[in-house]
Amino acid sequence: DAKTTQPNSMESNEEEPVHLPCNHSTISGTDYIHWYRQLPSQGPEYVIHGLTSNVNNRMASLAIAEDRKSSTLILHRATLRDAAVYYCILRRGAGSYQLTFGKGTKLSVIP
Amino acid sequence: NAGVMQNPRHLVRRRGQEARLRCSPMKGHSHVYWYRQLPEEGLKFMVYLQKENIIDESGMPKERFSAEFPKEGPSILRIQQVVRGDSAAYFCASSPEGIPNTEAFFGQGTRLTVV
């Protein structure tokens, strides 16, 4: 599976936007980009996913670079509840069914 | 529509005992995945099952660990003769299909402590 690289940690002030980067320079044409997050003592939670175009949902936006070698998860207005570890995961388009979690980015939200 | 249900939430076993972890997928989901998370580490894939079939168990330790997903009832992750190193959080996820353009739904996990 292609690997992803994320910063170990980031900080954000409450009610400000947060941009969480992810590099995936070896991404293949059939790899979907998924984001999950894990709040303390809870199971992972799906956030968003995309293939080539930018995506928006009620939780976040996903901006995918034109060459697909990087992406950015955007939380438009961070709340204390958004403090979590955020995982950027590539999921192959064919013959793949598992999510391979890396170390993710630990996001701290400052009140 | 209830989410993925795992039980028990916490399980304490003495070394050498057996641990049985149960996972009921979301209604309509026939694909189940088990992950293990050791303290302060990321989630590691263990096994992927569909009803009555093990599709991929490449992440399962070779001994003492087994998983099943019967036609009726929950998926079971079974750990025989537990050791201290088995202490971890075990998460189950389910999805309606096994293709990449779907999301997986995770349960709250079972925290196993081996004493």
Shape descriptor of chain B reads globular
Helix/sheet category of chain A: mainly beta
**C-alpha Rg of chain A (nearest Å):** 13 Å
What portion of residues of chain A belong to β-strands?
over 45%
The percent of residues in helical segments of chain B reads under 10%
Total helices of chain B: the number is 0
Class per helix and strand makeup of chain B: mainly beta
Q: What profile does the largest beta sheet of chain B have?
A: 7 strands, mixed
How would you explain this protein's 3D organization?
- The complex is a heterodimer of chains A (111) and B (115).
- Chain A is mainly beta and 111 residues long.
- Chain A is 0% helix and 45% strand.
- Chain A has no helices and 9 strands.
- In chain A, the strands form 2 sheets. Chain A has a 5-stranded mixed β-sheet with strand order 1-9-8-3-4, with no helix packed on it.
- Chain A starts with 8 loop residues before the first strand and ends with a strand.
- Chain B is mostly beta strands and 115 residues long.
- Helix content of chain B is 0%, strand content 49%.
- The model of chain B has no long low-confidence stretch (mean pLDDT 92).
- At the A-B interface, strand 3 and strand 4 of A face strand 4, strand 5 and strand 10 of B.
Name the features.
heterodimer, A: 111 residues, mainly beta, 5-stranded mixed sheet, 9 strands, 0% helix, B: 115 residues, 7-stranded mixed sheet, 49% strand
At a glance:
Chain A is mostly beta strands. Chain A has strands spanning about 10-15, 20-25, 30-40, 45-50, 55, 60-65, 70-75, 85-90, 105-110.
Could you give the topology of this structure?
The complex is a heterodimer of chains A (111) and B (115).
Chain A (H helix, E strand, L loop, with lengths): L8 E5 L4 E6 L8 E7 L6 E6 L4 E2 L4 E4 L5 E6 L8 E8 L13 E6 L1
Parallel strand pairs in A: 1-9
Antiparallel strand pairs in A: 2-7, 3-4, 3-8, 5-6, 6-7, 8-9
Chain B lengths: L4 E3 L2 E4 L5 E6 L6 E7 L5 E8 L2 E4 L8 E4 L6 E5 L8 E8 L9 E2 L3 E5 L1
Parallel strand pairs in B: 2-11
Antiparallel strand pairs in B: 1-3, 3-8, 4-5, 4-9, 5-6, 7-8, 9-10, 9-11
